[in-house]
Amino acid sequence: MNLKQADYIRAIAQEGSITAAAKKLFISQPSLSQALRQAETELGVPIFYRKTTPLRLTYAGERYLQTAELIRAAVDRLDGQVRQIKMENSGRLRVGISIQRATQILPFAFPLFRARYPNVALELVEEGSARLEELVMQGQVDLAMAAVEATSPQLTYQLIETEVIGVVAGKGSHLCELYPSGTSINLRASAQDSFIATKPGHSIRVVQDKLFRRSGMRPEILLETESIEIAKRIALEAGACMLCSNIYVDDTVREKGGFYPLEDYENHRHFYACYPKNDYLPKYALDLIEIFRTVLSERGNSEFAGKTRG
In this structure, are residues 28 and 8 in contact, taking their beta carbons and an 8 Å threshold? Predict the structure, then answer.
């Protein structure tokens, strides 16, 4: 349907004649008559009863104008939505994030984001950090919040939080009995202890396997789990150890064990926001990254004093 033609036909219906409508529209009568004939030809039926004065719409003509109004309203809504998107006040943002990080951050970050952007739909894709970069490059998420190494030339990385890798040890473990919490250790200091581990696919499991190989360690793995939180709690209760980032050190760790930063490992896997290089990120996506930074800064953890042994 040509909405300009619909405007012409509406004017004829309102004015009751082609002559009066042409004057109202500031076009010639022959041009308006031609536009009407073209619309009727395209529709396949008359739009007006020609023998009445004033001109009266046929049933098909009534339906034509009703449909034109619906189309115009849809176009107006679309224009408004596009304007809002251009103003970056509405849209959809698909965010990839691990369940552990979502549990830690989203209860505090989401209300802030929602208050600022009530018309932005936030969609979560929850996967292990090791897979999130791949999802970004496949276009399955717009933005990933992941603990990764910033190495892919296809992605832009924005640092959200640095992480220190260490060992969480429960009371009763050899490590916890030997050193006060916060002491920097060599990983082999935990060689006599059993471990709780995350399953393959987690970023910390990638680091763990690398460090065990490098240290020549093959500790007893008591249990594997998908959840870092579950692994941490079991290790604390069982007097075992687990490899962990400092970001998961909380009051439970302080009460039931300790955290021991690794002195012989320089961590390169930090918490980044990553998205395709050269892609345009709307303001609401950039603001979500900043909200994450703010939440983590306000709830920051300093449980690794780097104390030396002895």
Answer: no
Crossing angle for the helix pair 18-25 and 3-15, nearest 10 degrees? 120
Per-residue pLDDT, 87: 65
CA gap 146, 292 in Å, rounded: 12
Q: What is the pTM of this model?
A: 0.61
Task: Report d(CA 93, CA 113) in Å as an integer.
Answer: 12
Map residue 251 onto helix, strand or coil. helix
The mean pLDDT of 256-280, rounded to a whole number, is 90
Closest CA to 262 of 200, 293, 306: 306
Q: Which two tokens stand for residue 285?
A: 């996506």
Q: Taking residues 150-159, what's their average pLDDT?
A: 93
User: Nearest 10 degrees: CA dihedral of 81, 86, 90, 95?
Assistant: 130
Largest CA distance in the chain: 108
